[in-house]
Amino acid sequence: MREELEQIKREAAEGIRAAGGVKELEELRVALLGKKGRLTGILKGMGRLSAEERPALGQLANEARDFIEGGISAAKAELSRKATLARLAAETIDVTLPGKARARGHYHPMTTAMEELKRIFLGMRYEIAEGPDIETEYYNFDALNIPSDHPARDEQDTFYVEGKDADGGGFALRTATSPVQARTMERGRLPIRMICPGQVFRADEVDATHSPVFHQMEGLVVDKGVTFGDLKGALMVFAREFLGEDTRARFRPHYFPFTEPSAEMDVSCFKCGGAGCNVCKGEGWIEVLGCGMVHPRVLEMRGIDPAVYSGFAFGMGLERIAMLRGAISDMRLLFENDVNFLNQF
Ligand code: DAH
Fold this sequence. Notes:
The chain has 345 residues and is α+β, with helices and mostly antiparallel strands.
């Protein structure tokens, strides 16, 4: 019996060492210490021993039981300690690692140009006006004193839209922001100081300087005693704020049906300052917009007396302006939205 107890202890020690998990340890415990366990069987057989043998063997058997129980519970504790350590290791966060930088968005160069223009003119107390993209032929042409045989009316230049308005006139996608002038004058609230940025449409093929959809910004001022000097003053503020303090401007006589007199405004090249370079194509000057004094007929058609009121107007292409500012050589880059291109701005 003595030997058997020693044997059980050895086997128990072996089993504990070999056990890979709590389940195996539990099985070992049942096999040795359970109701039908081997050690339990020995303890039960104690009664058969003689009175001399019993105390010593009883003590040995108890020791064996304590040894096994202690071993198993120590092994369980060790397993759970290891499991905790493993989980902590797996969940460790290295707070010293550099963070992942999030890519930040930014404005498209067209948006930047448009916002800057709005800021400049709102600063001169202009208001922002809007008009429909699908315009009546009347507002797009007639109200702007554009004669019915004007080439701009040709199907080759203008996208016409099906349908007739209340007066039997046709519709077109607006070819300029200028019809908003007529709509604003019609509201009968004077004086007027407005800008109108928006999309316009022309039947042009796409190339480096053309697109069937592009943007313009119109300006209109109508009040008593408005002169060409006021026009030049307002546009000089725009040129200096938008292109730089040293910008100079010149006004070349031109023709538009809705203004008289009319002019085109050139600004001194903001890159070379006027000496001539690749941006201004050696000219020293860059054309930026059309402008003029609102034609008396245009005022009259809107019920404004040209003997009392006068006004000036201007219109510029925003892609062109954004391209000049960003030294962008191809208009398509503004529409293609290639992120590698846009990230430069
Ligand atoms: N409507 C002209 C265009 O599309 C631009 C323009 C020129 C607008 C002179 C004006 C102006 O208001 O006065 O080319």
